[in-house]
From TrEMBL:
The keyword Nucleotide-binding does not apply. Residues 33-46 have a biased composition (Basic and acidic residues). It comes from Streptomyces yaizuensis. Keywords: Signal. It holds the Pfam family Peripla_BP_4. This is Substrate-binding domain-containing protein. Gene3D superfamilies: 3.40.50.2300. The lineage of its organism: Bacteria, Bacillati, Actinomycetota, Actinomycetes, Kitasatosporales. Residues 25-55 are annotated as: Disordered. InterPro entries: Peripla_BP_I (IPR028082), SBP_2_dom (IPR025997). Residues 59-316 form the Periplasmic binding protein domain. Its main location: other. Belongs to the bacterial solute-binding protein 2 family. It is found in: Cell envelope.
């Protein structure tokens, strides 16, 4: 799963995931300001800017192994976006969770002299030197989500907001329970060895500070898998007989959590998920389970990274901003998807 620093310390906040995608897809637009805003047409919201093709660009894309629904969606978004540009050739690696293997894959792309690199590192710290190598070779790097240790290792960073996920999950739960005396919540976290998990928990805890009637009574870490979600949720249900809300960090492990909840016959609390899987959105739309919302960590960031890479290579900026240059850092917003707005976000749901 993705990992990066708390966005309040770096990044340009762009609004909801859909709005941020619409803005970034305008990064190569040269249309006069008087023309109709493309984002008004929902069918065009996730399409690249329909400008005249620029110079031919070869983009190298290197990500970790797609062993998780979100990571697989990252690869799919990058491929589909690149295909929409007649002036873009995408050189994509197989992906690896082995740091040495990914370094080798990126060095191969550097040796091929691609015009720009998009890199979602398996380990940002470990791959910083490779990002520096590419930048020194004159190849701009778009650092996707898991951030390098040095800003000199990338031209632009774009990624999600882990702290914001927790913050918005906590705010949503807080608003649902604000009038309930002595309300209790529990948390099904991800891998505690990852900084992103700690950021999500910190955001959640900070949000709950604004609701003195709510107490977090239990927290259990899982492993971002269906099996771990089911096992850890079963443990939480056994330990906590009475609570009002659950925040689950990840929709993949949430599939297992929902299984455990159904097996226990529990319907007396609300659940909020995380990331934005299609299965979670379908459940929210059906409104036939405890799952009432999910907080986005949009994999559409990979499509936006392709937009940015193309714009950087062609010397263009982002439509809607006065600056001529692409920003150094872009943080996407963690929107809360509920039954009221799920139709808007369904196209971004990943399997």
């Amino acid at each position: 799963m993705p990992e990066h620093p708390v966005p309040s310390r770096r990044g340009l906040l762009l609004g909801t995931a859909a709005v941020s995608t619409a803005l970034l897809t305008g990064c190569t637009s040269n249309e006069p300001s008087g023309k109709k805003d493309r984002s008004e047409n929902p069918d065009d919201r996730n399409a690249p800017a329909a400008d005249t093709p620029g110079k031919a660009v070869t983009i190298g894309f290197a990500g970790p192994q797609a062993d998780h629904g979100w990571l697989n969606a990252i690869n799919d978004n990058a491929r589909s976006r690149a295909k929409k540009y007649p002036d873009v050739t995408l050189e994509i690696t197989e992906g690896s969770n082995d740091t040495a293997a990914q370094i080798g894959q990126i060095q191969t792309l550097i040796n091929k002299k691609v015009d720009v690199l998009v890199v979602l590192p398996a380990d940002g710290k470990a791959l910083t030197r490779t990002g520096l190598e590419a930048m020194r070779a004159g190849i701009p790097v778009v650092n996707l989500d898991r951030i390098f240790d040095s800003p000199q290792a990338y031209r632009c960073w774009i990624g999600g907001d882990n702290y914001g996920m927790g913050l918005n999950a906590g705010r949503y739960i807080g608003e649902q329970l604000k009038d309930k005396p002595r309300a209790k919540v529990i948390e099904l976290a991800g891998l505690d060895s990852l900084e992103l998990t700690r950021q999500r928990t910190q955001g959640f805890d900070d949000a709950l500070k604004n609701y003195p009637n709510i107490t977090k009574v239990a927290r259990q870490a899982a492993e971002f898998t269906v099996e771990s979600g089911q096992a850890r949720m079963a443990q939480l249900l056994q330990a906590e007989a009475d609570f009002d809300a659950l925040w689950n960090h990840d929709d993949d492990q949430g599939v297992g959590a929902l299984r455990a909840i159904a097996q226990d016959g529990r319907k007396d609390f609300l659940m909020v998920g995380g990331a934005g899987a299609r299965s979670a959105m379908d459940a929210i739309k059906a409104d036939n389970s405890v799952l009432k919302a999910t907080v986005l960590y949009p994999p559409t960031m990979a499509a936006s990274a392709i937009d940015i890479a193309r714009a950087v290579a062609q010397g263009k900026g982002i439509g809607g901003l006065s600056e001529l240059e692409i920003p150094a850092s872009i943080t996407l917003y963690s929107a809360v998807v509920t039954k009221d707005n799920v139709d808007q976000y369904l196209p971004t749901g990943f399997n």
